[in-house]
Amino acid sequence: MSSNNENAPSTLQSYVDSTTGAIQSAIGSLTGSTGDKAQGEVRKDAAQTEHDSSQAAVKAPGATLSTDGGIAKDDPDRSQGSWNQTVGSAKEAVGGLIGNDSLKSSGRQQNLEGQQQEAKGQLSDLGSGVASRAQGTVGGAVAGLTGDREGQEHYDRMRADGKAQQRGVEHDIQKQAEAERKD
Questions:
Q1: Where is the CsbD-like domain (predicted)?
Q2: Could you tell me if 160 and 69 are in contact, meaning their C-beta atoms sit under 8 angstroms apart?
Q3: How far apart are CA 110 and CA 90, in angstroms?
Q4: CB under 8 Å to 49, separation ≥6 — which residues?
């Protein structure tokens, strides 16, 4: 019943370990046991490392790779929306520089449409990623219980790909938020 991803970083496991570490540290503080307190702190630190690893992904143009080998291609609306935003912003800037209100307005409209299009693609990828992760997790557990190793590998891949898809959206949203804070 062993999974190919049994050693993959887990967000849920990091929460469990962090809570356990906090409790152990608190008990150590209450009882005066520096050993328990130190072990609790070590467990909390390890949990933070596990959490950070579980959130890690590499975002490439048009795709995302998760740390557990998942690969997800971006929804086409995400790339096209981003392109429309870039072109729209350029038109808006040029229109402003040369005093062409029509070009400026057209650029602003294209930029807004690109934002909506990208958001639509992100929503699609996020929903699909969450669904694939859930289906992969449940399917992998059932396949593991029944001893279906091939099925378990299939569902583990589905879960990993769903995670990559979800992490790609999260990465893009975080990047957009950082850019807005700078403005």
A1: 77-125
A2: yes
A3: 10
A4: none
Q: What is the DSSP letter of 32?
A: T
What is the tens place of the pLDDT at every residue in 3-36? 444 555 556 566 777 788 788 778 888 888 888 7
- In whole angstroms, give the CA distance from residue 167 to residue 107: 30
What are the backbone dihedrals phi and psi of residue 74, each rounded to the nearest 5 degrees, phi first?
A: -65, 145
For 34, list phi and psi in degrees, rounded to 5: -65, -30
Taking the model in full, what pTM does it have?
A: 0.66
SS3 57: strand
3-state secondary structure at position 18: helix
Reduce the secondary structure of 60-94 to three states and give it as a string: ECCEEEECCCCEEECCHHHHHHHHHHHHHHHHHHH
Please report the beta strands in 19-148, taking only residues with DSSP state E, as ranges in sequence order. 57-60, 63-66, 71-73
Residue with tokens 């929903």: 127
Classify strands 63-66 and 57-60 as parallel, antiparallel or unpaired: antiparallel
